[in-house]
Amino acid sequence: MAGQGAWPRSSGPEDLLRVSASDAQGLLRGCGLYGSYKVRHKLKPVDWAYRRDDAQPFILGIVRDVSIALQDDPRIHSWDELSQLITQELAQYSLHSALLRYATQAIENYLNCHDLSKAELGALQLRICDPEVVPNPRYPGQKLNVWAPVYDGNSGVREVRKLRFGAARKAPASPDKWTVTAAHVAGLVRPRGDVTRIRVIELGLSDGSVEVLFDDSPAAAKALYESQVIPALSKIVDSRSVTPGSNCGKCKMAGCCNTLEKLDGFLGQARRGHATRSVSARDLEIYETCPSQWYLINSNLPGDSDPGPSSERGRNVHEWLAKAHMGNRKCDASDLDFIDEHFPQHLSEKEYLEAREYVTQHALSCPIGDGARVIGSEVGIYGYDARADVVIVSKPDLLYLDAEDTFVIRETKTTTRSIPQDERAAFDQFFAVPWLINLIASGYRGPYESQKARLELEVLASGESRVYAWDLNDSGLRGMAKAEVRLRAKRWHRDTTWSSTPGEHCKWCPVRQWCGDARIEEADTDDGERMP
Question: Which of 29, 192, 415, 487 is deepest in the core (most CB within 10 A)?
Fold first, then answer.
């Protein structure tokens, strides 16, 4: 939820701006604090310092550097020679085995695409990596840059290569702000006299796919930049809104941001870990299943595995309920006799009928109505644990005030198993329960700061459902929740190796293709507890 509170204390020049193509594309939405401080690259917080995680290397940078070192290498006459040279080059980096496997394939694909560009455009020479230019000489403190290699051709063409972890996406009907900014930066890189054509391509490193994003003159790139990007950049630079969100985990102001909930000691850790990190209950569940899976997902490696029927079912049910609850209207089973405006239109008939069984059960216990007021559906809650130096992320399914003005967090789960017999069994089965009890016990009461609070867990099966509730005045319960969070977070908080723990879960691991330890044999296809 957005705020306008006092910004953190900072030092450094405020008039020096460095804007990247990624900033132009991604900072217009989201937190104004994050965007405004990011482009003011010399501005630093006074009361806190973000600690970067050197255990998580910038894998795209490694892929690019090795690819450039090997492109047009006269020693390469066969695939075996290329493979040996890639292995030698990558040996200088300390990489997780799965990252090494991905990097090897990505480098091969980059070099194949390099050859394709040469076949189409003629001889190409690397002009510069990550060019930075001053678009207006009257404002030397304002710079544009793009993280990308830039090549020159003999026929006046200059090519910018955007690297993507997975497959290249289909080019949009009109260039996006990243593409326009990158093309304009490339057009300003000296020398400019012989450049008559700017080409921007996206290169999919996982499969070698290529999409042309822009192919026109430097003048056309400049015109698009002035009409589409400059107005957006002005909004980024001038924004004063503070909206916690997905950028909090990498924001250089997170630890001293007044808008984040104060959750010191939330994880129960005695000291800071290896680096500033962010974590959610789902993160710790993934880590407990396999530390390597959590690490690879957070390294942005592309995945290609089916998420599993239970995950899809849970996602479909959640999407339906989120849309319905935003209307502040009580769900009614009669609404489900047809596909109404709340139901995701992309579902097949089979998916609709399956999800309908679960949503019908929810309608029997929907809390909306009878004086209840919805605060938000699928609302992200972001806090900061100063003792652990970790941004805490929660996303409960529903926040509302009941008729007695009690603040209620409700979490919804679907299952094909029998539902828990009581609150104790539900506490043990669903980690979201101790996590959210700990959140409320830490003082979170929503935007209205209610004096009373309650946690509800709704478990939906195809033919039955139950709502569990916990008395948060019970100090023993709060202690149990704190202990559970502490134990689950302990190894994750200190880990820097991210070892794999192969098992039946490998069948649904989204990054298993990169893991040499993955077990691919048949496994149980529905554990009943996967929820997005």
Answer: 415
